[in-house]
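Why do we bother with a discrete structure alphabet at all? Because it lets us treat a fold like text: something you can write down, compare, and reason about line by line. To make this less abstract, here is a complete entry for Ribose-5-phosphate isomerase A. Read it the way you would read a sentence in a foreign language you are learning: slowly, and without expecting to understand everything at once.
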Amino acid sequence: MTQDELKALVGQAALQYVVPGQVVGVGTGSTVNKFIDALATMKDRIPGAVSSSVASTERLRAIGIPVFDSNEVERISVYIDGADEIDHRGFMIKGGGAALTREKIVAAQSERFICIADESKLVEALGRFPVPVEVIPMAAQRVARQFAGMGGVAKLRMKDGQALVTDNGQHILDVSGLAIRDPLAFESEVNQWPGVVTVGVFAHQKAAVCLLGTAAGVKTLN
Ligand code: 5RP
């Protein structure tokens, strides 16, 4: 199976976690796009979605699923999103699609995080994928120096020759070379650096379940 087919497989499998009659939290990325396509088949059974990005909002609305502002919704039973890396404990690196801040907000508002990913995303230890960090632009270079002090190399994410601007008007640093032995402690520490909006380690908002697309079918990791 191609990687695209594996993504479609887990996107479809995630439908079993959507609770009829309740708002669903929707993440961002190519795997989530497959989930959104599958969600079209049950759009008449849910009131709508809370979305983690402008891109997902547009895709949901295009198939006729109402999208609510997160402030309008108190409780989300389930949040479905992809990952750039996930380990066996459900800790993840996310933000490859630059949507990490809104993803963390919707995840925090949700009772359960269901991660959908193809098997290439499962790792023994987090850190091969450069950690995305959303930063206030004026803090970018200072935050980069703080990562250098930890042995990391931070690169400003670019798009069309300019610094990428997130849905929140901020920039992204992609940090490689980090040894993330304790994801909970790492997330807590980086989160409190001045100018950091969100660090793309999801340890406090980890996945409860991971649906992993493999050549043998969907594996469920709890
Ligand atoms: C976006 C994300 C995505 O979930 C992550 O990058 C995985 O994307 P894809 O499903 O396209 O591999 O965190 O910010």
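What the structure line is telling us, in plain words: The mean pLDDT is 96. Residues 3-13 form the longest helix (11 residues).
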